[in-house]
Amino acid sequence: MDSLAKATYFFTGFPGFLATRIIDKLIENGSDSDFELLVHPSAMEQAKIRTKRLAGNGRKIGRIRIHEGDITKADLGLASAVSGELNETVTHVFHLAAVYDLAVPEALAQAVNVTGTRNVNAWVLHCRKIERYVYFSTAYVSGTRKGTILETELACGQGFKNHYERTKYDAEVLVHYVRDRVPTTIIRPGIVLGDSRTGETEKFDGPYFIMRFLDKFSGMPIPYIGKSRAAINLVPVDYIIDATHHLSRSSAGIDKVYHLTDPSPYMARDAFRLIAEELAGKKPVFTVPRSSVYMMLSMPSFRRWVQVERETLDYFHLEAEFDCSGAAADLSQAGIRCPDFADYIPKAVEFYKENRHDPRKLIEVK
């Protein structure tokens, strides 16, 4: 692990769950550095609450400031004086702001994920003391590709399952254009679940839609959805945080792209069974065609009733294997490994069961 002099960290995506936890990890590990947090106007109140918590309990921390802004605007919507000051002091930029909804409309995804990243790139190039630019992509920039996906690959003529994937791909392409001018680390997480030790998560989206589906049918025999032979790549959030913390501080992470994915993922069918056993106390006993469920989820009334986005099904049938040998090699020096899904899914389900009626954690399905 490389030592760091006092740094000035600039984050987009705060007060989001990942950004908050990465900042918390930096502070926890003895950083007395400064934190400059770009916050969308709609999230200012929550950001103020979270910054108080981060700086609380007498923790060793430098300055922590919130800056109202918007990545979809030129100069990130910052006042020119503020932007100029930050360009002179920021040493590390973490760009996490994005629309992560699989059902996101194209225009919104384009504005936030692509235009937003183009604006962040331009801003980073004006940071005179920049030491690292950490960009959060997704493993699913691979789109509809099958077979083994390498960390060194991006543009392979793939199609995309939704606007989220397409715009995250386009955004990562833009980040690659600045790699020769800024020390850059690109993080591609798999599908993120809650903390492997506590189960904590901020929103019940992604794989939690399957839990919501099982909730609706737990009183009757549970079916498998299709005869998938694909693996599903699920990773707990604490692994993403620990890995990002290490890779963003190590010189080994410069000019690298990392799949933060499970090196030994479970078959989607087995993962579904484990979730059903934990949540409903029983195994699936028959199979319904995936096409039938997809057709039902295409009906807004049914989709709203089960509270499941139909796009979720695609990730239980994706025949892609994410090679993460680069990440494993560079994380091994810190003893960081992805936990086994079967070991932490009980905690994830337990947290879901305790909080499934919390409206703050529920994603509205339209």
TrEMBL record:
InterPro entries xrefs: FAR (IPR026055), FAR_NAD-bd (IPR013120), NAD(P)-bd_dom_sf (IPR036291)
Matches recorded under CDD domains: MupV_like_SDR_e
Domain Thioester reductase (TE) as annotated: residue spans: 12-243
GO MF, any single term: alcohol-forming very long-chain fatty acyl-CoA reductase activity
Pfam family, one: NAD_binding_4
GO biological process: long-chain fatty-acyl-CoA metabolic process
Tree of life domain: Bacteria
Coiled coil: none
Stated name of the protein: Thioester reductase domain-containing protein
